[in-house]
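[[Encoded backbone]]
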Amino acid sequence: MDEKPDLLVTLKKAGVALPRNIQRPFFVFCPFHRDRKNPNMRVDPRQGVFYCHACGAGGDAISFVGLQLFGPGFNHRNPEMFKRVLEHLEQNQIPKVEYRPPRRSKKLSQEIVQVLTLAARVYHLTLMGKAGTAGRKHLIDRRIDLAAMRRFRLGYAAPGSLVGALAGYPPALRKAAEEAGLFIEGTYGKPRELLARRIIFPDIMRNGSVRHMVGRSSDPNTKVAYKYFALSGLPKTIWGLARVSKRKPVILTESIPDAVNLLQMGFQGTAVGGTGIASYLVKDLKRIPDIILLPQNDERGREAVQNWKELLPHARVLRDYPYKDDEKDLNDQVKRYGLVKAANILRESLTDVGVYIQVVIKKP
């Protein structure tokens, strides 16, 4: 082998889920131990190395394949092992990772629901206060007004806000917060809030309790490996699905801000919060008689919707949605035209696929 094997190429071929931004160091679930709650394996694409802070596995692309083939006993200096690893790399026979995050029960404990609901309240109050000024501006720039922030209990996770709020509560709630993935281990073993400095989108049930939440990076000048963070200690949800009516058409999109805009327009908007739909969520989506898939305006978004269509054969797809070239998603269109005109554009596109929805939006 003349050139050193590329670590990112090796990870992709092995089936490791990578974030969109792979120019800077990022974390993924480690395939060499039971990485349960939070991704512990740090990948540095510039150096071409990885290291798991939980189990200690590390090295370059050769080490990664060697650990897959031989486990912890892999040794670069063993000529037989080294030769076999090189053969796999040269022949593009990268073993697929066997690790999958353990299946989580869909039923949440009372303590977890309680701490999620409390966290959503703390983050919402933070967003509406002085510490949330930048977060409110970010949302308003995306045409998500104060009324929508209150309606959907959107929040902002100021560093340390939840730690302080839980100080006067029983230890069981603190433990539930850790189980849910709200806290991760920070410097010197001190707890750090996973969603710190992010806009919070809680997924609210019909009874007002919270079953999940997603944090979105709010600073466009800060490059992050993950634009969205979901709580890894909880089963994933379809944002907004718990509150829809099955008697009306439901629009499924990739982005949560898109779903918020849809709800502001008067449509039933829901969001995957990414490109992949967990297998245990497909059954819930199949219970929706009339579901419409709205793709984003990029290759990855269109490919995601094609995959969703295979899982949901009864769904209708807005394949030729009239985006402008510089519009990545529905929210970009809303920012350009406003809610009223964007709603009319969407309504006409829905009519083209046989969906007739009359919406009324009051102009601000």
Residues 158 and 222 are 16 Å apart (CA to CA). The chain has three domains: 7-90, 110-230, 241-352. The first helix runs from residue 7 to 14.
